[in-house]
Amino acid sequence: HLVESGGGSVQAGGSLRLSCLASGRTFSIYAMGWFRQAPGKAREFVAGINWSGERTYYADSVKGRFTISRDNEKNTVYLQMNSLKPEDTAVFYCAADNTGIWYSAVGYNDWGHGTQVTVSS
Fold it and tell me: Which pLDDT tens digit goes with each residue over 64-90?
């Protein structure tokens, strides 16, 4: 069970920090990721992190602006989003992957319900 929080509305250039709390699983063995889906667009794999937090993946569209991290003691994964742009507006989803392949969208098969991020110009 994954529950996202931290979404909201900000102006372009602002920042938000998303959190995803995992329950009912051994959190530390899973790769975790963040995806987003804007209206009328396909779901996009934004960032992924391996079980230890030592390896990360970022989509080119967010590289240098977003940072994924995790705290295995708190069963939580984070997405720090800086320099937000209107095109970042989307529903952001947290997901878990039990294949260990944190850098590929294919293995993520357990999803949260999403949190809305809206960036105004």
Answer: 999 999 999 999 999 999 999 999 999
State the residue for tokens 């977003």.
66
Please choose, from the candidates 81, 93, 91, 98, the residue with its C-alpha nearest in 3D space to the C-alpha of residue 28. Answer: 98
Strands 8-11 and 115-120 come out as parallel
Average confidence (pLDDT) per 10 residues, the chain, 121 residues: 96 98 82 96 97 96 98 96 98 93 90 97 94
Number of Cβ within 10 Å of residue 1's Cβ equals 11
Per DSSP, which regions of the chain are E strands?
2-5, 8-11, 16-22, 31-37, 44-49, 56-58, 66-71, 76-81, 90-97, 108-111, 115-120
Give which of 14, 21, 2 is closest to 89, Cα–Cα. Answer: 14
* Token couple for 48: 């992924």
